[in-house]
Amino acid sequence: MKKFYFFLVALVLGVMSASAIDYYLIGGFNGWTTSDASCKFKAQGDGTYVLDYEGQLTSGFKINDGTWSNDAANFGSNGTKLALGTPYNYGVGGSTSDISLEEGVVDNPHLVLDTNNGTLTITGQQAEVKITYDIWGNLPDQAEAWSATTLTNVEGDVWVAKDVNVTAQSDFGIRELTNGSQSNWIWATGNNEISGIGTFACGIQAESDGVNFSIAPGKWTLSFNAATMELVVTSGTDAVEGIDYYLIGGFNGWTTSDASCKFKAQGDGTYVLDYEGQLTSGFKINDGTWSNDAANFGSNGTKLALGTPYNYGVGGSTSDISLEEGVVDNPHLVLDTNNGTLTITGQQAEVKITYDIWGNLPDQAEAWSATTLTNVEGDVWVAKDVNVTAQSDFGIRELTNGSQSNWIWATGNNEISGIGTFACGIQAESDGVNFSIAPGKWTLSFNAATMELVVTSGTDAVEGIEVEENVAPVYYNLQGVRVAEPTNGLYIVVRGDKVAKELVK
Questions:
Q1: Is 311 among the domain residues?
Q2: pLDDT tens across 140-188, in order?
């Protein structure tokens, strides 16, 4: 009897405990207000609870006990959408995502929560659905607390907030609003750190891993495309005022803050430059320094065509911009920081390509300077008898009409300590490193077609070197180009590790 009595007491207490739980509907439709009296379910005494909500229920909701601290009373999505009139097996726990409705919006829904079977059944009238978006964050111009920044629909699926003034590092996400109530949270699925203009991948929180955005101080224009799930960030019109932009490249010897290359602000986020001279491939735009990544505009990986807006890349990691036309006389440049484009017009000029050695070869002085390469035939350019008195570094400059258009370096072995053939590549197109050459007198032959640097001993250096017998000879002409079948003439001949000049008859 005693045991039976205690069993009855425990059973009663269990029933009382269960019946003492209050359940609430909570979601974007009521601003995620906990313990909202208008959203409280009424216990039926049999493990079921009923709520007749007066208003619109939108996707993005859960049920809890008025708190977020009790996982056992936190009911959310099972990974599918809830259909009206069909019992829905809800998920349990704080890790569950929000419940979405197949119908989108329901007017004055009737909800039945069955804790015995773990189901939620909703009936009601489907309402007309209107989807909008806003920015939700602690952007300082909106106050320290999180609040909304309006996104305006400008066309199709594009929603824009212009000239958003951010005075301190701030966080935000994008809210999808169904009939004015949050139905989804949208965040960054890739890079979330906004420190300059660019395009940032987005995703719905319930469907993708990610994190909220973090944005640096400045005045920004934020454009969200709901179809492509991308956030495009450009400079706001007031923010760019006061920034000076300069054209810089091989055409002006990479001179920073060149007054003749300064853009003129138009007051609307666009800048104009009429450059008097020739613009060649291999240039960028910056603020007169290399220290501000947000104001460092370079290549997007393609060539710029005259008359066509070019979506430039942003940051120090971008390579130099190349022109499809090669050289432009007296170009007119329009920099549009709102849309992140550069448009160049002008007259295409005649193109002349040459090459030189650029390095700190001691006979050229301690500072880096040019060693002439002479075109001897076709694509072969030669510097004879280059006297290197100490270990030195260099690269090869491609010059378009006398201005550097490309930097050429070693893509394989870069250590020149003897004769040989060394693979080269254009810096913007290949990984590599500058050449390093040992002391000696060398002849350097660069083949622009094969992208090879052939190194032989200089004419003074090879005088008097003994010829090694019984070794198959390798012939080079005096320009350093290998010759398979030499005809009559003077050649540099390599046998093993021996080099000599020989007259072939």
A1: yes
A2: 877 678 999 999 998 889 999 988 888 888 999 999 998 888 989 999 9
Picking from 348, 364, 393, the residue at the C-terminal end of a domain is 348
Domain hosting 433: range is 353-504
Coil, helix or strand at residue 7: helix
Indicate the residue type of 171: D
Is 215 among the domain residues? yes
The contacts of residue 372 (CB under 8 Å, 6+ apart) are 356, 357, 383
| Domain identity same for 215 and 137 | yes
Burial class (CB in 10 A: 0-12, 13-18, 19+), 381: buried
Residue 72 is which amino acid? A
Say whether both 373 and 272 belong to one domain.
no
Residue 146 lies in a domain: yes
Long-range pairs, 242-246, Cβ under 8 A, ≥24: 243/287, 243/295, 244/287, 244/288, 245/271, 245/285, 245/286, 245/287, 245/295, 245/335, 246/285, 246/286, 246/287, 246/288
What confidence score (pLDDT) does residue 37 get? 96
Q: Are residues 339 and 422 in the same domain?
A: no
Q: pLDDT band at 497, cuts 50/70/90?
A: low
Q: Rounded CA gap, 269 and 338, in Å? A: 6
The band of 35, judged by pLDDT with boundaries at 50, 70 and 90, is very high
